[in-house]
Amino acid sequence: MNVKEQVALQRTELEVAVNYALEMACKKADTAEVTITKTTGISVATHMCEVESVEFNSDGMLEITVYRGQCKGSASTSDLSKKAITQTVAAALDIANYTSEDPFSGPAPAKLMAYDYPELDLFYPDESEPGHAAKKAIAAERAALGYDKRIKFNHGASYDSHYGVRIYGNSHGMLGSYASSCHNLSCSVIAKDSKGMERDYSYTVARDKLDLWTPEKVGIQAAKRTIARMGSRRVSTCYAPVMFSADIATGLLGHLVMGISGSNLYRKSSFLLNKLGHQILPKWFQIYERPHILKGIASLPFDHEGLITRNLDIIKNGELQTYLVTSYAARKLGMEPTGHAGGIHNWFIGNTGQSYEQMLKCLNTGLLVTELMGQGVNIVTGDYSRGAAGFWVENGELKYPVSEITIAGNLTDMFKQIIAVGTDTECRCQIQTGSILIESIKIGGA
């Protein structure tokens, strides 16, 4: 029996376990919800072309939440026998006897459940042996180490391959499951010369291992990025245009995700409080969410509360179209849940048509950011201050690498001052955007 056949049988068995837990819970609870996650995989790390570690994992957990009136109790178990499930249900019911009433608790609305959900082609398990995984990591290292004589060391490389099953059911009659996989290859190296040392990395990630970059591409890109940083210097403190490279721009928009997340909103701890329907980005700016992309890195048929995921406009013509709210946050805010329990699902950012090279021309003279450091972002106020590294650009050309600088501003202003988004789309994460150019940010340097 191959892995796909084993997982298909496993899904059926786990669905039976969820049904049993719900049956036991609903004898004494008003409502209940049950989740089972089971993950299997391998992680291989190498260093200087030698295997450093091999880790196997096979983890599973059943979590049950029961509601008696507005009182909530939760418990979990890794033992999926009927006896253990019965004991876990009893523990959750007992906990509910001691918790305070919360008028906003309870499962998500029955009308929004994913009773019928799509198959999204997310499952491509890798049955490779550790030796095969190690060969991929070592090949990436060798490509990086052989690229330039200044590359003396490496932080190492790793190959990770995991697959799993998620089952969700509740007392509304919702019972759904899906299998998914994720494969990742990364490499990090250090270069050294008489002026100092620099390091950088590269990685590739995909649902299907056949969609990964070759190990050689990963290694060479890690090496190129590292060598490009050699001879970094500081720049004088100034205000200048700043361009975030595509892989860094995803993090910039991650702050938008935090700002419109329900938990921050009902706590009144977001700089985007009361901004629904308001223009928060330039009029040409668009963000849309597409959760049902086949093989998508962030595709999901339903969220962690069993709600059907659906296409959404997040930003339309610069205006905020929706908050991202779970059922609990929705009740707090007097809204309808949006299907984001567990995170966002494939955000696509509209571009303004410029290639990477054309974006540099638009930047003209300023800073290209290729790395950010630190956690200096205040989601309550939007104040932004982070360590940065990258390249100083003059007349649209890279002049020299820079490091040991900071960039500072306020996210409200930074979002409104975006003047272009490139076509060099970063496709390795849940936010897919090109490089982002901001009109002016304070750069703290020498």
TrEMBL record:
One of its GO terms (biological process) is proteolysis. Residues 32-96 form the Metalloprotease TldD/E N-terminal domain. Residues 125-229 form the Metalloprotease TldD/E central domain. InterPro entries: Metalloprtase-TldD/E_C (IPR045569), Metalloprtase-TldD/E_cen_dom (IPR045570), Metalloprtase-TldD/E_N (IPR002510), PmbA (IPR047657), TldD/PmbA_N (IPR035068), TldD/PmbA_sf (IPR036059). Residues 240-445 form the Metalloprotease TldD/E C-terminal domain. It holds the Pfam family PmbA_TldD_2nd. GO terms for cellular component: cytosol. GO terms for molecular function: metallopeptidase activity. NCBIfam families: PRK11040.1. Belongs to the peptidase U62 family. This is TldE protein, part of TldE/TldD proteolytic complex. It comes from Candidatus Enterovibrio altilux.
